[in-house]
Amino acid sequence: MIKYISFDLDGTLADDTFDKLIWHEEVPKLYAAKHGMSLDNAKLHVYAEYYRALDIERVKTWTDIGYWFGRFGLQDWQQLVKDMKKHVFLYDDTIDALEYLSKKYKLIIVSNAGQKFLDVKLEAEGLRKHFDCIFSAPDTFGVPRKNKVMFQKILDKLGVKPDEIVHIGDDHELDYEVPTALGIKSYHLVRSRSMKDKHIIHSLSELKSLL
Protein backbone atom coordinates (compact mmCIF):
# COMPACT_ATOMS: atom_id res chain seq x y z
CA MET A 1 0.00 0.00 0.00
CA ILE A 2 1.43 3.36 -1.04
CA LYS A 3 1.91 5.80 1.82
CA TYR A 4 4.31 8.40 0.40
CA ILE A 5 4.80 10.12 -2.95
CA SER A 6 8.31 11.49 -3.43
CA PHE A 7 9.11 14.28 -5.86
CA ASP A 8 12.28 15.72 -7.27
CA LEU A 9 11.99 19.52 -7.39
CA ASP A 10 14.03 21.09 -10.19
CA GLY A 11 12.77 20.05 -13.61
CA THR A 12 9.85 18.23 -12.00
CA LEU A 13 7.83 20.73 -9.96
CA ALA A 14 9.68 23.92 -10.96
CA ASP A 15 11.69 24.80 -14.05
CA ASP A 16 15.39 25.75 -13.98
CA THR A 17 15.07 29.48 -14.75
CA PHE A 18 16.03 30.52 -11.20
CA ASP A 19 19.14 28.32 -11.12
CA LYS A 20 20.32 29.19 -14.62
CA LEU A 21 20.06 32.92 -13.99
CA ILE A 22 22.01 32.72 -10.73
CA TRP A 23 24.77 30.33 -11.80
CA HIS A 24 25.16 31.32 -15.46
CA GLU A 25 24.46 35.06 -15.36
CA GLU A 26 24.34 36.73 -11.95
CA VAL A 27 27.41 35.15 -10.32
CA PRO A 28 29.59 35.90 -13.39
CA LYS A 29 28.24 39.50 -13.45
CA LEU A 30 29.25 40.02 -9.84
CA TYR A 31 32.65 38.43 -10.47
CA ALA A 32 33.20 40.66 -13.53
CA ALA A 33 32.31 43.78 -11.54
CA LYS A 34 34.62 42.80 -8.68
CA HIS A 35 37.62 42.18 -10.94
CA GLY A 36 36.98 44.80 -13.61
CA MET A 37 36.80 42.30 -16.46
CA SER A 38 34.40 41.65 -19.29
CA LEU A 39 31.39 39.45 -18.65
CA ASP A 40 32.60 36.94 -21.25
CA ASN A 41 35.95 36.53 -19.51
CA ALA A 42 34.25 36.30 -16.13
CA LYS A 43 32.00 33.53 -17.43
CA LEU A 44 35.01 31.60 -18.71
CA HIS A 45 36.66 31.75 -15.30
CA VAL A 46 33.54 31.07 -13.23
CA TYR A 47 32.36 28.18 -15.39
CA ALA A 48 35.84 26.63 -15.26
CA GLU A 49 35.69 26.72 -11.47
CA TYR A 50 32.25 25.10 -11.48
CA TYR A 51 33.48 22.25 -13.64
CA ARG A 52 36.66 21.82 -11.62
CA ALA A 53 34.62 21.46 -8.43
CA LEU A 54 32.22 19.05 -10.12
CA ASP A 55 34.99 16.88 -11.57
CA ILE A 56 37.48 16.95 -8.70
CA GLU A 57 35.87 17.89 -5.41
CA ARG A 58 32.51 16.14 -5.61
CA VAL A 59 31.60 17.68 -2.29
CA LYS A 60 28.29 18.82 -0.86
CA THR A 61 29.37 22.44 -1.35
CA TRP A 62 28.85 22.07 -5.11
CA THR A 63 25.29 23.47 -4.89
CA ASP A 64 25.89 25.85 -1.96
CA ILE A 65 25.62 29.48 -3.11
CA GLY A 66 27.31 30.60 0.13
CA TYR A 67 30.34 28.44 -0.66
CA TRP A 68 30.70 29.95 -4.13
CA PHE A 69 30.34 33.53 -2.93
CA GLY A 70 33.14 32.84 -0.46
CA ARG A 71 35.29 31.13 -3.08
CA PHE A 72 34.90 34.03 -5.50
CA GLY A 73 35.19 36.73 -2.82
CA LEU A 74 31.69 38.07 -3.46
CA GLN A 75 29.31 39.64 -0.97
CA ASP A 76 25.71 39.07 0.17
CA TRP A 77 24.40 35.95 -1.52
CA GLN A 78 21.19 36.40 0.49
CA GLN A 79 20.36 39.58 -1.41
CA LEU A 80 20.98 37.93 -4.77
CA VAL A 81 18.75 34.98 -3.92
CA LYS A 82 16.07 37.35 -2.67
CA ASP A 83 16.24 39.37 -5.89
CA MET A 84 16.00 36.22 -8.01
CA LYS A 85 13.02 34.81 -6.12
CA LYS A 86 10.66 36.26 -8.72
CA HIS A 87 12.18 33.89 -11.27
CA VAL A 88 10.96 30.71 -9.54
CA PHE A 89 8.36 29.26 -11.89
CA LEU A 90 6.29 26.17 -11.17
CA TYR A 91 5.02 24.04 -14.01
CA ASP A 92 1.33 24.44 -14.84
CA ASP A 93 0.46 20.94 -13.61
CA THR A 94 2.31 21.17 -10.27
CA ILE A 95 -0.20 22.65 -7.83
CA ASP A 96 -3.18 20.75 -9.19
CA ALA A 97 -1.33 17.43 -8.91
CA LEU A 98 -0.06 18.16 -5.41
CA GLU A 99 -3.48 19.23 -4.16
CA TYR A 100 -5.02 16.04 -5.51
CA LEU A 101 -2.33 13.66 -4.25
CA SER A 102 -1.97 15.25 -0.81
CA LYS A 103 -5.55 14.18 -0.03
CA LYS A 104 -4.55 10.52 -0.33
CA TYR A 105 -0.81 10.35 0.42
CA LYS A 106 1.95 12.05 2.35
CA LEU A 107 4.23 13.99 0.02
CA ILE A 108 7.97 14.56 0.27
CA ILE A 109 10.68 16.27 -1.78
CA VAL A 110 14.01 14.55 -2.50
CA SER A 111 16.32 17.03 -4.23
CA ASN A 112 19.93 17.59 -5.24
CA ALA A 113 19.47 21.29 -4.47
CA GLY A 114 21.02 22.93 -1.43
CA GLN A 115 18.73 24.03 1.38
CA LYS A 116 19.31 27.72 0.64
CA PHE A 117 17.70 27.33 -2.78
CA LEU A 118 15.07 24.90 -1.56
CA ASP A 119 13.85 27.39 1.06
CA VAL A 120 13.27 30.04 -1.62
CA LYS A 121 11.57 27.69 -4.08
CA LEU A 122 9.28 26.24 -1.44
CA GLU A 123 7.80 29.70 -0.93
CA ALA A 124 6.58 29.79 -4.54
CA GLU A 125 2.80 29.57 -4.66
CA GLY A 126 2.70 28.08 -1.16
CA LEU A 127 4.58 24.98 -2.27
CA ARG A 128 5.90 24.05 1.18
CA LYS A 129 2.48 23.41 2.74
CA HIS A 130 1.95 20.34 0.54
CA PHE A 131 4.97 18.44 1.90
CA ASP A 132 5.56 16.47 5.07
CA CYS A 133 9.35 16.20 4.64
CA ILE A 134 12.05 17.91 2.58
CA PHE A 135 15.32 16.09 1.88
CA SER A 136 18.36 17.83 0.40
CA ALA A 137 21.15 15.56 -0.84
CA PRO A 138 23.97 17.95 0.21
CA ASP A 139 22.45 19.41 3.36
CA THR A 140 20.48 16.48 4.78
CA PHE A 141 22.86 13.68 3.80
CA GLY A 142 26.18 15.36 2.90
CA VAL A 143 26.31 13.96 -0.64
CA PRO A 144 26.42 15.91 -3.93
CA ARG A 145 23.49 14.06 -5.49
CA LYS A 146 20.93 11.32 -4.87
CA ASN A 147 22.21 7.77 -4.48
CA LYS A 148 21.01 4.39 -3.21
CA VAL A 149 22.33 4.95 0.30
CA MET A 150 20.44 8.25 0.51
CA PHE A 151 17.15 6.68 -0.62
CA GLN A 152 17.63 3.84 1.87
CA LYS A 153 18.14 6.35 4.67
CA ILE A 154 14.93 8.09 3.62
CA LEU A 155 13.05 4.78 3.78
CA ASP A 156 14.48 4.16 7.24
CA LYS A 157 13.65 7.66 8.45
CA LEU A 158 10.07 7.44 7.20
CA GLY A 159 9.70 3.89 8.47
CA VAL A 160 8.38 2.55 5.18
CA LYS A 161 9.18 -0.33 2.85
CA PRO A 162 10.18 0.28 -0.79
CA ASP A 163 6.72 -0.73 -2.04
CA GLU A 164 5.11 1.91 0.19
CA ILE A 165 6.64 4.87 -1.65
CA VAL A 166 6.62 6.16 -5.24
CA HIS A 167 9.25 8.55 -6.61
CA ILE A 168 8.90 10.94 -9.57
CA GLY A 169 11.64 13.03 -11.19
CA ASP A 170 13.11 14.22 -14.47
CA ASP A 171 16.54 12.53 -14.29
CA HIS A 172 16.54 8.99 -15.70
CA GLU A 173 19.48 7.79 -13.60
CA LEU A 174 18.92 9.59 -10.31
CA ASP A 175 15.12 9.61 -10.26
CA TYR A 176 14.40 6.28 -11.94
CA GLU A 177 17.34 3.86 -11.99
CA VAL A 178 18.64 4.62 -8.47
CA PRO A 179 15.35 4.31 -6.53
CA THR A 180 14.17 1.43 -8.75
CA ALA A 181 17.28 -0.53 -7.73
CA LEU A 182 15.94 -0.44 -4.16
CA GLY A 183 12.49 -1.65 -5.20
CA ILE A 184 10.88 1.80 -5.17
CA LYS A 185 8.26 2.29 -7.87
CA SER A 186 9.56 5.23 -9.90
CA TYR A 187 8.47 7.31 -12.85
CA HIS A 188 10.76 9.29 -15.14
CA LEU A 189 9.06 12.59 -16.00
CA VAL A 190 9.78 13.59 -19.60
CA ARG A 191 7.68 16.60 -20.52
CA SER A 192 8.47 16.06 -24.20
CA ARG A 193 6.16 13.53 -25.87
CA SER A 194 8.99 12.02 -27.91
CA MET A 195 9.87 9.29 -25.39
CA LYS A 196 7.52 6.43 -24.56
CA ASP A 197 7.92 3.65 -22.01
CA LYS A 198 5.85 2.23 -19.17
CA HIS A 199 7.99 4.04 -16.60
CA ILE A 200 7.82 7.41 -18.41
CA ILE A 201 5.15 10.03 -17.78
CA HIS A 202 4.79 13.32 -19.63
CA SER A 203 2.79 15.27 -17.08
CA LEU A 204 2.22 15.19 -13.34
CA SER A 205 -1.48 14.99 -14.15
CA GLU A 206 -0.95 11.39 -15.28
CA LEU A 207 -0.30 10.39 -11.67
CA LYS A 208 -3.99 10.74 -10.89
CA SER A 209 -4.79 7.66 -12.94
CA LEU A 210 -1.57 5.74 -12.23
CA LEU A 211 -1.72 5.80 -8.42
Structure, explained:
The chain is of the alpha/beta class. The chain has two domains: 136 residues, HAD superfamily/HAD-like (Rossmann fold, 3-Layer(aba) Sandwich); 70 residues, no CATH class. The protein contains ten helices and six strands; from the N terminus they run E-H-H-H-H-H-E-H-E-H-H-E-H-E-E-H. It has a six-stranded parallel β-sheet. The longest helix has 19 residues. The protein is elongated, with a radius of gyration of 18 Å. The model has no long low-confidence stretch (mean pLDDT 92).
SSE diagram, text form:
Blueprint: E1 4-7, H1 17-35, H2 39-57, H3 65-72, H4 77-84, H5 94-101, E2 106-111, H6 115-121, E3 133-136, H7 137-140, H8 148-158, E4 165-169, H9 172-181, E5 185-189, E6 200-201, H10 207-210
Parallel strand pairs: 1-2, 1-4, 2-3, 4-5, 5-6
CATH architecture of the largest domain: 3-Layer(aba) Sandwich
Low-pLDDT ranges: none
Q: What is the total tally of β strands?
A: 6
- State the share of residues found in helices, binned by percent: 40-55%
What is the number of helices? 10
The CATH homologous superfamily of the largest domain? HAD superfamily/HAD-like
Number of domains: 2
Rg for CA atoms = 18 Å
Strand content: 5-15%
Shape: elongated
Q: What class, by secondary structure content?
A: alpha/beta
Summarize the main sheet. Answer: 6 strands, parallel
CATH topology of the largest domain: Rossmann fold
Strands in their spatial order, largest beta sheet: 3-2-1-4-5-6
Mean pLDDT value = 92
